[in-house]
């Protein structure tokens, strides 16, 4: 049976930044509810909502203290119910961000577990006793420092946290934890949500804690083989998902496999006894990137490196993802999310800004796969420029900025604003009113007004916004939603050419991801209909010429499918 999510086009909403309805500077569920018609107008059919559970907000909701309630900043359960209902009336599906690897340290389970080793909830978390109070091993946390935090009342005992120290990891080896998380998820499935984005699920199994990760470095190091993609991840996941599918066989499971390569993504989406594990995977490895040299500073401060698209490696990467997932599911197609800098900041060509963004979107979203659009991307929104070290809300980054001599700080703030996740989480700019229509209050993240708003983009027929609408209309057609996919080998670096085919219909998508004119010849397509172009495209003799960052999409009824 065909599942609804085979045609999913997902719009990611970071709720605290989308629309504030009660003017406290933080976006909320009522704000989102008020903007559902806008989301619908984009031609998407699914919303991925970043976490809205009750949370101390140490990590903007990824630190959950109560899974059964909505955080008061975001509204009430009644608003959540109304949101789900209205979304469904508009044929929009809702995916909830489901945090299952860890809780907040304020969660009652952890608070109880901290009280005594005899707590009934002690085994819900991961502890290690050390004879002399030294750190149990050298494993590093993704948020800096060690994964181990000393228990204040028990100096010889540490608890495990892969992310912030206020986010202790749950012990999935404990069947009670697995059952408890199934109950939480069942509660939300019962509320009518259509799917879950499984946060950090690849980390739910850990290796033997009594070992160091082999390294020459001193101090904590990122030790993925010790806490990522271990075999028990699949075991725990299968049980969790099987239980949920019993109550909703159509539930869409989008797994966040941050470090998953195509082979792992295939493993996590393979079907087993008739039921899939995840239905799709998002990974940080979805696009090939290369590092850009950092600015030179007088101080010896090691700046993180910005990245850009490695267009030379792109064809291989596309083929690897498409091929690996051909038997199980579809790839996910995206550029940005709340953990990454914005697409326009990283990938746009400044000289050909608008058309480069349209061309990149075409290249990515017309492939076989599920597009995921990060809110504001449809406007061409850039990362905001943050003016203070603390604005990054990230200890490692503020410490680094503080080490830079004052004279060089403005340049460093600007540089880091272009590659950090927090400046990509700014308030959605709706119109020219105060705070760009997001709120009457200063938004939680103070930024300069964005140079583009929804209202301005609506009024411009050539805007990226209106282009996205046309692109998604096309994407919803069966040919682009479910048709076969084939990348054609071309000699010109940066020219991506692929074909889609369904029944008697086929399409050729050509995108020039370079700032040079490129030429392409394919006699099978000379009489095809032009579906649309971006930039300047000409046909002379038998060759197509695509000016910098131009796109050509052709369709024809006769199938010209290259020989296998
Ligand atoms: C992945 C989320 O996308 C990220 O924002 C969060 O910090 C970590 N998981 C921890 O939950």
Automatic annotation (TrEMBL):
Glycosyl hydrolase family 13 catalytic domain ranges (all copies): 12-420
EC number: 3.2.1.20
GO molecular function: alpha-1,4-glucosidase activity
CDD domains named among the record's database cross-references: AmyAc_SI_OligoGlu_DGase (cd11333)
UniProt-listed SMART domains: Aamy
A family per Pfam: Alpha-amylase
Annotated keywords: Glycosidase, Hydrolase
Keyword Hydrolase: yes
PANTHER family: ALPHA-AMYLASE FAMILY MEMBER, NEUTRAL AND BASIC AMINO ACID TRANSPORT PROTEIN RBAT
Family membership: Belongs to the glycosyl hydrolase 13 family.
Protein name as it appears in the record: Alpha-glucosidase
Organism: Lapidilactobacillus achengensis
